[in-house]
Amino acid sequence: MYDEPAVAVYRIEDLAHRSGATVRTIRAYQDRGLLPRPERRGRANVYSDAHLTRLRQIADLLDRGYTLASIKELLEAWDTGRGLGGVLGLVAEVDGPWTDEEAVRISRTELIERFGGAPDEAAVADAVELGVLEPVPGEEDLFLVQSPQELAVAAELYEAGVPLSAISGHLRELRDQVEHIAARFLDFTTEHVFARYLGQHQPPTEAEAAQAATLVRRLRPLAQQTVDAELARAMRLFATRQLRRQLGSETPPEPAVELCVVRIPVSTMRAVEKLVGPEQASAFIAAAAEREVQSRTLDTLTANGHESNKLGQGT
């Protein structure tokens, strides 16, 4: 006969050391119902590998942004047999890379060579703060670059004459705007797509979480594709305007005119927008009005001409 393997047991201090949690945290998790109570053996409380596994699950979910309340619901679902596999698969899908870029390492010497050949500690500090560069632990002169493409853009701008401080400031401003776009896209897809899976008062089932993970894979590239297309359109539009301003327009600017507000029926406005598009609607209405004025002016001049002829013939 074979002896059954001994089950590992830990005192609370040992459990804290192995899990990375503090003794106080472990007791707080017990009070919240996140961690089972220890087994009483004589005068001592002992913990098992199951407690260690549970602590590591909690730490992992906390790192992924879950609150303790939502973690408790997920763990209760796990304990009742509903499974965490689908949910963790969904979490892994969301936490996974949203780009095809692969991080690379760059030395301080290589960095200096790419940006003018002179050390600039302020610029390096800015890049670290922005997350463009990440110091490698234990390596004073080595950095991790999560987006080589972003660093390459900065190098090209610098070579074109843009100061590093201006590049950092521009990136901060751009990041705020892009994060707003990302938040709006997530709100949009959550409202119209994910609400039926994740908008419940209890954790999603294994099947629901798996379906949501599949949708994340499908929808992940859509945000970037949309932004790429719209950015290309906007750059073409504004670059053309900027170039015309810099080179001077071939046609002289029209004299300033006094504007007034004219009420137009909604049905008429919609018909115009359908005909020429929303962006051209105002110009179309102005041109139509101008054309009508010119037409009536011509009619008036023609009528006056006829009257003059009649008077001439009568004298």
- Counting DSSP E segments of at least 2 residues, the number of strands comes to 5
Which percent range fits the helix content? 55-70%
N-to-C order of helices and strands: HHEEHHHEHHEEHHHHH
Total domain count? 3
Characterize the structure shown.
The structure is a single chain. The protein is mainly alpha-helical and 315 residues long. The chain has 3 domains: 12-81, Orthogonal Bundle (Multidrug-efflux Transporter Regulator, Chain: A, Domain 2), CATH 1.10.1660.10; 104-247, no CATH class; 259-301. Helix content is 66%, strand content 6%. The strands form 2 sheets. A 3-stranded antiparallel sheet has the order 3-5-4. A hairpin with a 2-residue loop joins strand 4 (134-136) and strand 5 (139-145). The longest helix is centred in the last third of the chain and has 42 residues, at 206-247. Mean pLDDT is 79; it is low at 1-5.
What is the topological layout?
Layout: H1 12-19, H2 23-32, E1 39-41, E2 44-46, H3 49-63, H4 68-79, H5 85-95, E3 104-107, H6 108-114, H7 121-130, E4 134-136, E5 139-145, H8 148-159, H9 164-198, H10 206-247, H11 266-276, H12 281-314
Antiparallel strand pairs: 1-2, 3-5, 4-5
Helix pairs in contact: 5-10, 7-9, 9-10
